[in-house]
Write a structure and sequence with these properties.
Length: about 325
């Protein structure tokens, strides 16, 4: 393991230079994370920027009323030229709390305008289709984002939560600068088709769930009990035999990290950043120490022998029963 200076990476073939650790701004929306407050959220965003993170990822639907985007403007508005802001359109919330997919041109135009207002900026660096709308051809959604680029409201296009055929259809209409799938040590489906495709097309890959909702951060003991309202309890990775096998893996990673005077989160995020084709990893945080810990993953590099040792841990853990998005 060797120390390295923080390096910024090109996002696809764009002019954007982004930190390999990005801050995922879903937790500060306070919708599924407990004990979220504006003061801590603002402090977390500032701490991220001070730690070398320049890439911040939000969405129109992060919060009932755009809380995530508003907090980014509040914390980083005066540093706008220093940061790369990504946000997304195509998902909103119904009055009953259910999620609504809408990838129509009219909705993407309306949501982009609102995001610009909330963010206090005249342009969005990277604008994703948040998820495909099964009622709308993805070509229509791609065409809408292409028009937003032509109008100067968006610099570059992205697509999130898409399978390969959808990405190909989108890219044919509106060239993609980045894609955003889930990816981590235990959920590596994109390595089969999506990641090689993106690499061939020189499209950046920005992954979410590198710490699998905190599971791979090493902070959840084997006897951890989820509090009421903690959305993680419903996921298979946190239940039954999957939980036990994951905890066996965490025991190995905890020892590995201790021997290197690193946290488990630092090791896991660093491993993610150095997988072929990965541009940046979105690390969610609601407290400053969480994003500072993740940002430390940009300051060192594991040796080939260390990567091989981790691969042996993953082989012993075995195939995950829950590899699709949950």
């Amino acid at each position: 393991m060797s120390q390295t200076p923080i390096q910024y990476r090109s996002l696809g073939v764009s002019e954007l230079q982004v930190s390999s650790v990005a801050m995922g701004c879903w937790p500060i929306a306070g919708m599924t994370s407990l004990e979220v407050n504006d003061q801590d959220s603002v402090s977390t965003l500032i701490a991220a920027a001070n730690a070398g993170v320049n890439f911040f990822d939000s969405a129109y639907g992060y919060g009932r009323n755009g809380e995530s985007e508003r907090l980014i403007a509040r914390a980083l508005g005066e540093r706008r030229t220093e940061v790369v802001i990504a946000t997304k359109g195509g998902i909103a919330w119904n009055t009953d709390g259910s999620r609504r997919l809408d990838g129509s041109e009219a909705t993407l135009f309306q949501q982009c305008e609102k995001s610009l207002e909330r963010l206090g900026t005249d342009h969005i660096d990277l604008y994703y289709l948040h998820a495909p709308d099964p009622k709308i051809p993805i070509e229509e959604s791609a065409g809408a984002i292409a028009k937003l680029i032509d109008d100067g409201k968006v610099r570059y296009a992205g697509a999130s939560n898409c399978h390969l055929e959808q990405l190909e259809a989108f890219h044919a209409i509106c060239p993609l600068t980045a894609i955003q799938p889930h990816y981590n040590m235990l959920q590596r489906e994109i390595e089969a088709e999506i990641l090689p495709w993106a690499t061939r097309k020189a499209i950046g890959t920005v992954v979410y769930w590198p710490l699998l909702k905190g599971l791979l951060a090493g902070h959840l003991p084997r006897d951890f009990v989820f509090r009421p309202g903690d959305g993680r309890a419903k996921y298979p990775m946190f239940q039954g035999s999957e939980w036990e096998r994951n905890q066996d893996l965490m025991d190995q990673l905890r020892q590995f990290a201790r021997e290197r005077h690193r946290s488990v989160a630092e090791i896991v995020v660093n491993w993610t950043l150095h997988q072929p084709g990965i541009t940046s990893a979105l690390c969610g945080a609601k407290r400053p120490h969480q994003i500072v810990e993740s940002a430390q993953a940009m300051t060192f590099e594991l040796s080939p022998a260390e990567h091989q040792q981790i691969q042996q841990f993953l082989h012993q853990r075995g195939e995950s029963a829950s590899r699709a998005a949950v």
